[in-house]
Each structure stands twice: as structure tokens, then as C-alpha cells.
Amino acid sequence: MAGLQRVYKQRIKSTQALKKMFRAQELIAASRIGRARDRVSKAAPYSRAITRAVSAVATHSNVTHPFLVERTDTKRVAVLVIASDRGMAGAYSASVIRETERLVERLEREGKQVALFVSGRRAVSYYTFRGRDIEGSWSGHSDAPSTEVAGEIADAILDAFRAPADEGGVAEVHVVYTQFVNMVTQRPRVIRLLPLEIVEGVAPADDAETLPLYEFEPEPAVVLDALLPRYVRSRIYASLLQAAASELAARQRAMHTATENAEDLIRMYTRLANQARQGEITQEISEIVSGADALAS
């Protein structure tokens, strides 16, 4: 019985230490989630504005830009996966990787070759362990992405899309990230980033309506050359911000659940330790009474 008491006390002590760690992680995530949500909301107006600008130029000009045209000279497709650097966030990274695997399977059924670009240590470890080739990887920023990191990722993807087929160029670019809906709901999402399919900001004209006339200065091709890379960077940055908010929300929820589970374990081990102690006392009393009876007889 004394041995059981020691075992239960050790388990209570270790579980209390884990509970403190879970609680600390929950508080850290809670303190950061507000800032992450503000960054998502503040980045949205710029993203909408540049989308409307690109839509207007692409719609009201006759210029054909490489970013707007389907490539037929290669079957390579780039997939950017945005996951987390750390664990303790429930199924956050697993959901993104699962969605990526479904996308890769669909693309390979279509006869396309997938080139992986990975953001986040969890996804890098997953694909490295399975021997998958990774064209580019970034880590250390998943819960607080910066514009510099978004620019590096965008430059790598744009270089791959511009490259000739014999130098590893890609015909499409897909992004897999987690969309932040609210503190309870975060959804894995897949978007095709390149070639661009821009439909926001330009309403279709009626039959009797006269389309507006635009004069571009400089030429539309020069405007698109300047706008489209910025558009791609803004979309990637927005995806990183959405993923960061989703990661923090998932971590806060997972750590809250882990803290409650640790409290349940502590209560259970305390009850078992008390039962073991009561059993030990009962046994000692029985031995004393039996000894006294033996001496009396």
C-alpha cells in the first residue's frame, strides 16, 4: 500500500507540472490571438484594394500577361503548404497536411508533377521524414509572420512560375493554409494563386450599359508588371496572417482542454492515493488488533 501511495503522489506531482505548462501555453496564446486578429483585419483593406486595381487593369485593357495565361509547356505544379512551427495546437498542422495530401493526390491523378514549397517546421519534418523533395522551406515565423518572410516566399514562387520548363518552371501555384473564421472555427483552404483568376472588384456590364474608358499611364503592360507581383505577395502575406491567427486559436483551445484533463487526472490520482492510504491504515489497525488478541490468548 505504501508503494501505491508513492506512485500516486509522483503521478500527481508530474501532472501538476504538466498542468502549469499547459496553462502557461494557453495564456500565451490568449495574449497573442488579439494582436493576430488585428493584423488580419488591418491587412484586408490593402488586399481588397490591390485586387480591385488588378481586376480593373486586366479587364479594361487588351494586354496579355504571363501571370494571366495558362502555361502548356510543363506539367509541374507548385504547392505552398503553410503549417506551424510548434505543436501543442491540436490537429491544426495535421488538418493542413491532410488537405495538402488530398490536393497532391488530385493533381497527380491529372498527370501533374507536384513541387512542394513548405512553411512551418511541422510540415517540413513531415515531408522530410517521408523522403519527399522540398523545393523551398521557411520556418520560425508561423505565429508572427512578417512582410519580409512573405516577400521571400513570393519571390521563390514567382521565380518558379517565370522559369522555363527545362529549368524547373511550374504551370500552376496552389496555396494550402488555414482560414481563420472565429475562435472556434478554423478551416483548411486551398486556393489557386497562379495563373491569376481575378473576378473581384469589377461588376459585369449590362447589355445597354456603356463600359468605362480607361487611359493608362504608363502602359497597361507596365502597370501589370508592377501590380501583379505585389498582388501575389499580398495574397501570400494574407494567407500567413490567417494561418497565424488560426494556429494561436487552435493552441489556446487545445491547451485549455489539456488543462482541464490534467485537473481531472489530479482529482483521480488524489482519490486513488486516499484510498491506498485508507487501506494502509486499515491494514495496520487489523495487524495491531490481531497481535493484541494473540497476546491476550
In words, what does this structure look like?
With 297 residues, the protein is of the alpha/beta class. It has a domain of 176 residues: ATP synthase, F1 complex, gamma subunit (Pyruvate Kinase, Chain: A, domain 1, 3-Layer(aba) Sandwich), CATH 3.40.1380.10. The protein is built from five helices and five strands, in the order αβαβαβαββα. Strands 3-2-1-4-5 form a five-stranded mixed sheet, sandwiched between helices.
The global form is elongated
Spans with pLDDT under 50 lasting ≥5 residues?
A: none
* The CATH superfamily title of one domain: ATP synthase, F1 complex, gamma subunit
CATH topology-level fold name of one domain: Pyruvate Kinase, Chain: A, domain 1
The tally of strands reads 5
CATH class of one domain: Alpha Beta
Looking at the overall shape, the CATH architecture of one domain is 3-Layer(aba) Sandwich
User: Which strands sit side by side, in order, in the main sheet?
Assistant: 3-2-1-4-5
Q: What layout of secondary structure does this protein have?
A:
Elements: H1 2-59, E1 76-82, H2 92-109, E2 113-119, H3 121-129, E3 134-138, H4 147-162, E4 172-180, E5 186-194, H5 220-296
Parallel strand pairs: 1-2, 1-4, 2-3
Antiparallel strand pairs: 4-5
Helix pairs in contact: 1-5, 4-5
Task: Kindly summarize this structure in a few lines.
The chain is α/β, with parallel strands linked by helices and 297 residues long.
